[in-house]
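Re: your question from the hallway

Yes, I did run it. Sequences:
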Amino acid sequence: GQNIDQPTEMTATEGAIVQINCTYQTSGFNGLFWYQQHAGEAPTFLSYNVLDGLEEKGRFSSFLSRSKGYSYLLLKELQMKDSASYLCAVRDEMNYGGATNKLIFGTGTLLAVQP
Amino acid sequence: EAGVVQSPRYKIIEKKQPVAFWCNPISGHNTLYWYRQNLGQGPELLIRYENEEAVDDSQLPKDRFSAERLKGVDSTLKIQPAELGDSAVYLCASSLYLAGTDTQYFGPGTRLTVL
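Structure:
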């Protein structure tokens, strides 16, 4: 079966660092995505990991361990505007020679940044 | 570059009525997706198009839902008749397979309320 687990809610303080974890069990694996979604808005792409290790992009970093079925999103120097839902999504299919792209989403982690 | 465009943004209808949603993907993106997102949940794929061809519609409730993507660009998703449980946000996304990956970019969604 397909299963992606994230904490439902997290709270952090402005200026701090927060780590949002994601564990997954899927029939296949071909990459993991993190999206940010503000209330009432579209999910926006944050990061993509397909190989083990850390990908850094400004204040946001994402880590992947395929052997453990585990990823985390690290947000540094938190700002009030980072208050949003963070969605972990796994791409679980691969069709050689063409697009793959069936994303299985977790339920999202609602992050509240407090002053 | 313009993002994914969807209309309408909001729709309120009574049950048993028909409703249609429209999506214009990012220019040049050959893959188009329709997702449904219930409150507090991650998006769930309804249908995926590669150009004009629906390549994954396994999660589309075909008794009442239909979709089309004429000419491989714009797409419409229709529900007829709508049921109370169809209340959700309907998201459209598009992607282009390039250099081994195909990040999906989402539109703002249509929030459907069925009374």
